[in-house]
Amino acid sequence: MLLENTGLNGMRSDLGHLDESGDKLGFVRWQWEYRRATYDLKLHDRTNGQDYFLRITTRAVEGKLENPEAILEVEAVYIGRATFPHGLDYESAIPQPILNAATQRTQDLKKLLS
């Protein structure tokens, strides 16, 4: 599910600050290459035992990702249910408590990046 109106889309930050801010909130930069990086936050639903991931995709608009001063721009924010062994199902319904937690984390990240 694409999360719109998070206020993150289009925000820019240097890689070092984005890594530090994301780390404070539990995000991990899992996937990256020279121009793109993905930040994931695992959210566990105790009622159904499912894991969900809040995923933020970014693209380097200045520099390359091995440089902490590279400037990244947030492209999109997604949430999906984890599937075995390594996938995300973006079409599944997301429980409201998980959506609420995801919304709060996106707002917290927005404040740290502002």
UniProtKB/TrEMBL annotation:
It comes from the Bacteria. Gene3D superfamilies: YugN-like. InterPro entries: Uncharacterised_YugN-like, YugN-like_sf. This is YugN-like protein. It comes from Cohnella lupini.
